[in-house]
Specification:
Blueprint (H helix, E strand, L loop, with lengths): L1 H5 L4 H10 L9 H5 L1 H12 L8 H12 L5 H7 L4 H7 L5 H14 L3 H8 L4 H10 L9 H11 L3 H8 L8 H20 L12 H8 L3 H7 L6 H5 L8 H14 L6 H5 L5 H9 L7 H4 L18 H14 L3 H9 L2 H19 L8 H15 L2 H5 L17
């Protein structure tokens, strides 16, 4: 609002003239002119109560003015001292234009730690969003993307993730199961439609929600519950054309790898995490007969394979492999499945790619190279020799990779 006033070239001149040419009629305006800058913050705060006005046109006007301030640091200092959060939450179920503006404000405000805590202090917000997402109708289907974005921001905080998981209640995990069902259907519909053919109002950000809750032991337990079969249903989306979905599901799987006692489930045919990871790293490189011996049959041919291009997804795939080397049994499985030849060829292609794009070197790619080296060193290590001098497990410690 202040910037809008300052954009008027005549405002300051008008105030100066009023002050220097005082008359009986304008003498009372001196205090207003002198305190104009201080009152800008007060005026912003005064807009907030209008969000509860019974007239829809008043609510929408207040929202339109506030929506441009929700990501401004100076304005945030003022808004933190108001009741804007509960008023915005109440408007989620309002008429279309009002609901859209209120969701936009909440998404922007949730980027601020203090405002995020104010949202999480409300017992009903997470449940409201779950209900909105799982009961999408014709009237609110256009808000699917915004609902899932806000829920993703809320679950970045452990408090929000626990609320979603309903930890400690008789129905623990029910909300997550509901969200997973609608997410899976939406993601499959997108895959069938292909890139550019799906709806832009998708629930892609629910993949980030799944990644967030899998940071907690309770979340991992639910995701890897064999009876619920959530992981076998979700693992296919590690190759989804939507990069938000790929990153979220890979992040979820990566967090599940911290449950080292469940690695056998990740290796099982139901999940087959190694196949999905190797598929993302496999290129059109020719492999020898020896290299193919043990490699999943679908990866034998040189045609029909394209490597993952997103840097963050590549890193997540490699971190999954690092975490899977935590036990000797897992390392033997990785050797048997011929992970090394795929990594060897991926490393060659990556170096050629880096040399072409960054002849002087790219420090940002060092972590990718380090992860490849870490897995390769473990896989080519002769554990039989080490047994003679070392009794401890030789795999990298799980703590070396920080949970996200």
């Amino acid at each position: 609002m202040l910037q809008a006033m300052l954009a008027r070239e005549d405002l300051v001149d008008i105030l100066v003239k009023c002050i220097t040419e005082l008359s009986v009629s304008n003498k009372g305006l001196v205090a207003v002119a002198k305190t104009r800058r201080r009152s800008m913050a007060e005026q912003l705060a005064e807009l907030v109560p209008f969000l509860a006005d019974p007239k829809a046109e008043v609510r929408i006007l207040a929202l339109q003015h506030l929506s441009g301030c929700c990501s401004d640091p100076t304005s945030l200092q003022v808004l933190r001292r108001t009741d804007i959060v509960p008023l915005l939450v109440r408007l989620i179920g309002d008429v279309h234009s009002i609901a859209r503006h209120s969701l936009s404000c909440l998404i922007n405000l949730s980027e601020d730690k203090i405002m995020l805590q104010a949202m999480l202090a409300r017992e009903d917000l997470v449940d409201i969003l779950v209900k909105c997402i799982t009961e999408l109708s014709v009237s609110n289907k256009g808000f699917a993307l915004m609902y899932s974005m806000l829920l993703a921001n809320l679950t970045r905080d452990e408090r929000g993730a626990r609320k979603l998981l309903q930890v400690g209640t008789p129905i623990q995990g029910l909300n997550l199961l509901k969200l997973t069902r609608v997410f899976s259907k939406d993601a499959r519909d997108q895959m069938e439609a292909g890139p550019g053919g799906g709806s832009d109002q998708s629930l892609a950000w629910l993949a980030t929600v799944l990644m967030n809750v899998a940071q907690l032991a309770e979340g991992r337990t639910i995701v890897m519950d064999r009876n619920r079969r959530m992981l076998p249903d979700l693992i296919q989306f590690t190759s989804h054309h939507n990069v938000i979905i790929r990153r979220g599901i890979l992040g979820m799987v990566r967090n599940c790898c911290f449950a080292s006692l469940e690695h056998s489930y990740l290796f099982s045919p139901e999940v087959d995490i190694v196949f999905h990871t190797l598929q993302a790293l496999r290129g059109s490189d020719a492999l020898s007969v020896e290299d193919k011996d043990g490699l999943p049959a679908a990866l034998h041919e040189t045609e029909g394979h394209s490597r993952e291009t997103d840097r963050q997804c590549r890193k997540l795939h490699l971190e999954i492999l690092v975490l899977l080397t935590a036990s000797r049994q897992s390392r033997e499985t990785l050797r048997r499945l011929k992970v090394y030849p795929i990594l060897r060829e991926f490393d060659k292609a990556l170096k050629a790619e880096q040399a072409s794009a960054h002849p002087a070197g790219d420090p940002e790619e060092d972590d990718i190279n380090d992860l490849i080296l870490k897995v390769v060193e473990v896989l080519i290590n002769d554990e039989a020799e080490e047994d003679a001098t070392k009794t401890e497990d030789t795999g990298p410690k799980i703590e070396e990779i920080e949970e996200i």
